[in-house]
Amino acid sequence: MSSEESKIEAGSKDLEKHLNALAECEIEFDKAENDAAIYRLKKTSGIYAKRREILKAIPQFWYIVLAENEDFSDYIRTEDLKFLEFVSDIYVHHKVVDTNSAEDAKYFSITIGFKDTENEPPLIKEQEIKKEFRTVVVDGEEKLESEPVAVEWPHELKDINPAAIKKSKEGELSAAEKKKYRMGMKSFFAWFAWTGKKPGKEFRNGEELARLIAEDIYPYAVKYYSEALPGHGESEEDSSEGEELDLSESEDEADSKQVSTSRKRQRSDSDEETVSSKKQK
């Protein structure tokens, strides 16, 4: 081997050594960031629990927050809105808060409560639904999965409840039943049955909706509520009576349409997102 070739070989080995050292640094950075996120979750969990009880006493707090969020309406049918007025509670809990295991950073739950005290009989049954999520790696990419949980659909929507339609029919569905089934699959209430394991055969964009709630709507709920208050951001000369919130938009009938989440707000201090989306090392 010539002296020139020896130099090239030595240089290649040095470069490989430096690159390996950099890779180790990146692993340490990821671990430090993850540890910091877990620490923050543990420190703030008690504050969120305190906030939860306060928000339950504010009329239509969560409906106003959902209405103010720019992306939420992309995931639901306009017919769902009247029932979301009775969302009494949204609560996100990370399993790692209860343990010291980094493995538990992959798990979180979303609890949603409904309570209608304005109508008799109620438009939706009083209930609290807890849906759990876990991060898995499929083909080198992280994704969320969940198990279906039971939810009492509003009586007015019972005819499009996919589970009820399938249960009542042993054979092939008629064209009319298939249409109702597809309509039901687009309802917010179908999200509770989402698993992430049956693409194209369940509620669309279930993972995106879960992340939107956990990483945006929930942690920044008070900000959204404040922005919706009458006169927010207006001068005294321009302030006027607050307009009624309107989330309605035309419903896309094409099942293949993918929902755009390009408007999602970026938050540099969103530790919840750091924990839920961290890749396995």
Automatic annotation (TrEMBL):
Family affiliation: Belongs to the nucleosome assembly protein (NAP) family.
UniProt keyword list: Coiled coil
Coiled-coil region: 15-42
Pfam families recorded: NAP
GO cellular component term of the entry, any: nucleus
Full protein name: Piso0_005645 protein
Gene Ontology BP annotations: nucleosome assembly
Superkingdom field: Eukaryota
Region annotation Disordered: where it falls in the sequence: 229-281
Biased composition (Acidic residues): 235-254
Gene giving rise to this polypeptide: Piso0_005645
